[in-house]
Model the fold of this input.
Amino acid sequence: MARKVNRKIPVGRRELLKGAAALGGAAAFGFPMISRAQAATIKVGMPTILSGRVAQLGTSSRNGVMMEVEKFNAAGGLGGRKIEMVVRDSKGQPQEAARVSRELINSDGCEILFDAEASSGAFAVQEVAKDLGVLCLHVNSETSSLTADPKIRIPNAFRVTRQGVHDSIVGGSYAAGVAKAKGLRKWMTCSPDYAYGRDTTAQFVEYLKHFYPEAEIVGEAWPKLFQPDYTEVITKILQAKPQALYSCLWGGDLTSYIDQGNIYALFGATEFFAVNMADYTALTAVKNLPTGIHSGNRYVKTFPRTPANAAWGDAYRAKYGEYPTNWAWQATTTVQFLAAAMKKVNSSDGKKIAEALRGMKIESPFGADGTVTMRAEDQTMIGYAIGWGTTISKEPYIPEVKAGDWKQILELELDWKKRNKYL
Amino acid sequence: MDPAALAECLQTASCMVTQTTSGLIIGMLLFLVAAGLTLIFGVLKVVNFTHGSFYMLGAYLALGAYRFSGNFALAVACGGAGVALFGVVFERLFISRVYGSNVLMQLLVCYAFILILDDVVKLVWGAEFQSMGMPSAFQRPPLLMAGGVVPVFYLFLIVFALAIGAVLWLVITRTRMGKIVRAAAHNPTMTSALGINNGLVYGAVFASGGMLAGLAGALAAPVRSMSPGMGVSILIESFIVTVIGGMGSVGGALVGSLLIGLIRSFGSIGFPLFTEGIMFLFMAIVLVIKPSGLSGKGV
Done:
């Protein structure tokens, strides 16, 4: 049997050695383009939330990034070097976000991190970026202290997202206008009990009182992040009988809250200000959306009302079969900033890119004046379109948006930083 | 901490009505899940860690049936029956192999299925959150009782869950089937010697426990957004309930669920930042004073 097999496969020791030598030669000289091309990609690691209650937002982050990366690569990349995205699921858990981030750098060989976590995970990713010294672009976290507080801010991390304090100034100004017109003095807040919820709510209240000192907070409710049942929170609000209610709940939490509030007729009894309502994810998920909810613009393709924004929204929907989200436009902008910075310094070196990013201004469909700027001193994005309006239950969902005034935002933000000893 | 607000609430009829019904709603949904968990443990001596996933599966099956038919009653039936059916298959093929094994082995099998069911839900319904919306029959203004607000849908939930609890109690205590189940829980060797097919009894009990969790998921579907992994939080609360009420006691599950519901409801007024702390504190006190739980043990 053994001889028969040997006759059928006439490979001796010499032939085997020759074959091996030929294969080695081919690998070394015959296919160098493949191995060189693989090494030449710019690997970017991205931890985000791809499962659980906010998976749709994480997926939209990935979509927003991929849409722009494909465009960048198709245009030839950085002198032929293309961006290769490595996206991992953190399940929305900060410790997992940190672990995945480390793995992306240490094991997968990524040079840059896109932190596409919610705020709960963003601080964990920032710690990893600080420890490993890699360039990190925050794609979603809106918690102001992440970049405003010099004790937390690091030179190699940049925020390419809207910021809580900006939303609060614009929201506070808008809400004060409504409150003055309707005489809404008794206010209550209901926000998720973690950094973003606490931070943003405190800032909103501060600016509501700044613009309308008669406003009085008669109660607070702090449901847990991803809490399934809000019954006790809703009944507590009903007991307090506020005239107006502010919330920065978001995603599935916000839709659950509205579904449960509806059966208590909560939104008929109180004027509702939900900063995160006007995002297509939430707007389309709520089956019985009450009309007249006041909301900040998260992402709607009608604000800013420009052809570039509408075209981007339509292109996203055509490609992915769903509406983009707030996380999606921020993800796209992140790639646009990175691409512009890399081209400026003609390098993928993190330190050079960081230097280029400071103070960089780029054209953007999401800019209030068609541009957005990466402010040098605290490495956070400014100049994006920001405003508030009231919702209706069908498209365009938020027909009129009152745009925020960036001059006023920057003045009050400066004052806020001074009071918090961030400057 | 706002004990003054709690004291004021306790003296106001409208607050008492609203918060008590709120506590009952939270408690009764929890009771359905915890009753199934404790029933399975009482008879099969298996801690079913997949019970939260059964709740999730019930919600998603109900969502699928509701989207297909637009009929909420059918959706609830599908949620309960679908999970019962899955429960039988799961028990016969997998759980029956770990009877008598240590808890770690049971935990591993159950944990595997938590992950599998999460992924199955993700494949079928997608990873993003889903919302069923309120059935049109319940889209009506809430009732006002003594100045308190009681939603019609929640009133229905309380009555429905109480009815299921009553049926469960009657079956266990007043029927031949109930006697067999109790006998099998107490001494399976004896029931086997008497010619009773223990495997059949175990399968039926597991299916019933699963059905209760499935029903709870289906009933909660109109007001809670659904996403893969949604069963974890209710599983943790169910464990608190079973520890307080007593592992294996359906009556204890009812008492424990209502207590948790009322703690959360009134705690949100008086101790809004320590409501969960009170729940765990209460559980710890019960464990110290009466380790077997408030209602002892046994079905």
